[in-house]
Amino acid sequence: DADVTQTPRNRITKTGKRIMLECSQTKGHDRMYWYRQDPGLGLRLIYYSFDVKDINKGEISDGYSVSRQAQAKFSLSLESAIPNQTALYFCATSDLGLAGGPLFFGPGTRLTVL
Amino acid sequence: DAKTTQPTSMDCAEGRAANLPCNHSTISGNEYVYWYRQIHSQGPQYIIHGLKNNETNEMASLIITEDRKSSTLILPHATLRDTAVYYCIVRVNTNAGKSTFGDGTTLTVKP
User: Fold this and answer.
1) What was the pLDDT predicted at A100?
2) Mean pLDDT of all residues in B80-93
């Protein structure tokens, strides 16, 4: 069973629609992250959360919002989707308690905004 | 966090060792070297990390030079399933979110 899951895996939507991407994890990690990946631009951090009461902006947070509903759940919302938000979105977790704190990624959500 | 430089692409014969280099000449004393890989459009997968000692796990070995300015990821017996983009990342341990995933090295394992 996957430790980090994302739903939906694929989504096609129209400009102006509100979209929510969900992430759940069973690793027991406190820290969760949202990234987007675009061809030629690598992975860019959108938002991250160190615990349920902590939310931080990443390098490209404009146009996005997040909610940390529980330790295991971190959702990403696009309030009014636009075509340049078409990308591959990844959720990740980490645990500073582990020696090193590597990131563990979900399988990704491919979002297309028409 | 320190910047890394990796070759754009490499080939390796199936069954042979794949040695992927990474330069990180500006690494600071408290920065770790991490390696991830991404197969096609799947989520990146953590492979290994280290500070200054060489490290080995079930997936790979990590060799860090004594001056810590470069490192090599070794896949001892590459298989076709190891074909992926490999990312070398240098960062402090306090914030994994500061990991900068650049272009990485595209490793192609050939039969």
Assistant:
1) 52
2) 92
